[in-house]
Amino acid sequence: MDELKTKYTFWKLINQYDIEIPIMQRDFAQGRINEKTNAIREGLLDSLFRSIDDECNIDFDFVYGTVQYEKLFPLDGQQRLTTLFLLHWYIAMKEGKLTDEVSEILDKFTYSTRISSREFCHALVNFDFDLEADTKVSEVIKNSNWYFRSWDKDPTIKAMIVMIEDIHAKFFDAEDMFDKLIRDIDENPPITFSFISLEDYSLTDNLYIKMNARGKSLSNFENFKAKFMQYLKNQGFEYKHFEDSIDNKWTDLLWEYRSKDNTIDDAFIRLFTFITEMIYTEGTEAKDMNSPYRTFNIATFIKTYDSNEKVQRLYEMLDLWNSKDEIYDCMKSIFSTEYEEGKTRLFDNNCNMMDRCLSGENLSFPNKVLLYMVMRRLVYYKKQGNTDDGINDYARVIRNLVSRIRTLSGYVYQSDFRYGRHAIPFVQFIAANLLGADDVYKVLPSLTAPTAVREENLQDEIDKAKINNEDVYNKLRIQHLEDSNIFKGSIHNVIGLLADSNEDYTDIFESIFSADNTTLVTRALLSIADYGIRLGGGALGDRVYFGTKGNWNTILTSKRDDSYAEIFYKLITQYNKITAKNTKDKLKEIIDTNQKSIDRMAWRYYFVKYSRMLGKLNMLYAFKNRKENNIKIHRMDGSTLNGYHIVPFYREIALQLGNEKCDLDRCRGINSEEGTIVLKCGVSVEQSEDGGWVISREDEMKDVVDEGIDEVIQKYDSIEKDDLDYVEQGVMLCAMLYETLNSK
Fold this sequence. Notes:
The chain has 33 helices and 19 strands. The model is unreliable at 200-216 (pLDDT under 50). The protein folds into three domains: 2-215, no CATH class; 233-483, no CATH class; 488-642, no CATH class. The chain is of the alpha+beta class. The longest helix is centred in the middle third of the chain and has 20 residues, at 365-384. It starts with a strand and ends with a helix. Helix 2 (35-53) crosses helix 7.
């Protein structure tokens, strides 16, 4: 077949033959509108533009076809030939060179797939109009008197118009291109291909099937390899390493991540996407934007590598490891899923972030930043030829900083780390200040944080660094506590404890906050001060959260002021002084001791004294105000008002009265309705604004109830109540009402 193969340009081919796309061929597809085709079309036009503008030849591979009576029927290459046909027409027309002779030559290209496609091609090559940069070429074509509305349904015509529009956007500003396009084959034409004539065959369905059975459309990976290699060569960048490694070393690295069809295409695309996205991140301007790499667009990815430095960085990243085992060993030496001395704990139960990336798991941006900057450091020390003894501290500081960009969702902290707002400035800050630091803790005190990193978060790391720099044991104590589930790197509220003592407090905090001690812990903390976190407001007042088992992190790591840190300081100090053997007994003793000093008018007094006032689920309460003497507080069943809620004081009174006297189910409110104490004697009781009691009756029992209520009020007012708290007073009043009214 070598004798039949000849180098051609489109202009040479169309001058030599009439070109007819056979009826068995598919419609023109390069103008379809979908994510993948858009990317292919953009990359194709970029390559064509560069080849013509730079006068740098691009090889369009092979075009196969059979020739009958000077007419060529392409069997492979239809898409490329159609694009070249449209490009020649557009440039000739734009440059005023669409002469009768040129139109006549271009008219030799046609489609036999549909009559409409054939007629469109004929009309197009004879169509000439004035162009401006903002001309909507598709509208001009469709508004022409030769264009039939029925052609809108022809997929080939639709695709051709899309391609023309994109050609216009890409080539309008270019000049003097047509003469370059039609150069003779021996005058360095910009676009060539090898044409193989199969004139010994007849044009049959069987031939077409055989020709197309030899392969399928190129995958994203195959397209990428070819186009990236061509790009590197055209730009004069180092390409030999890519050429040597893509099918050898890097294939070996990714082979254990191969797909079911035994290809590494997906794994390589994932790895290349991650590295390219982060290289772009390190070099671009920080602004609020989405990542341009959310989908794989070959043209976008290739354009990232606009310098040899970036190309070399890509190679360095890809060369870091030789096998899946090496990746595992490296990740395991730096990260862990539980606290391990000398490692940085990750809190999502899988410390091998690179394995997750290659396996198709979507890494969060905090994890991407952490993984990339660790890889950058590995490369840095590898090039230096030095051992990196500080990589754990480096990784730990990054983990802490990225994890502190968060927001409350309900009453649980979720990451609020955005690509443009955070990832870009974080990567640049770390690369500029920490990447090559042998000991990051010695560098930290001299740094100033950019806005995105947040000064207070950097200050937390500086505060820890100052303690760490004093003693190796101090660093171990801090890192042990940081890696606890209840802190997850944020220990700013308890750093004072570590500074004042040499004790490792991790076991103490975990024994208090990790066990099933929610009610006791809440009462112990409230016995010291009001520590609740405000989550928002509503019809019933501010929503305040007090913490629950499994989510004490919200409480322990939220506020950032001395008074809040003082609460935890007092709790742990008191806890350590008590000689009781177990945590529950120690907490009970703290409660009993502190309760004596709480004002009995304060709502905290009742939460501390009466354990049943606290819930067992979300510990979420609504306060009309947070004043000490306010007892009209609603305990919420859910995180919003769209559910039941009850005043804890009313609930405690109802429980003490018992089901015989009080209808506990009717004491609850729903949505914005407030609950009351509903007695089984025709009345309900609630607290008044001045701290007294309001008694309401059911209308059908008006006379009997009014008489009984008056009697109870007189008797209640005559009793000395100075030694009784609100709950005890409420129980007494309700009991009197029940007994009096039921005796009538």
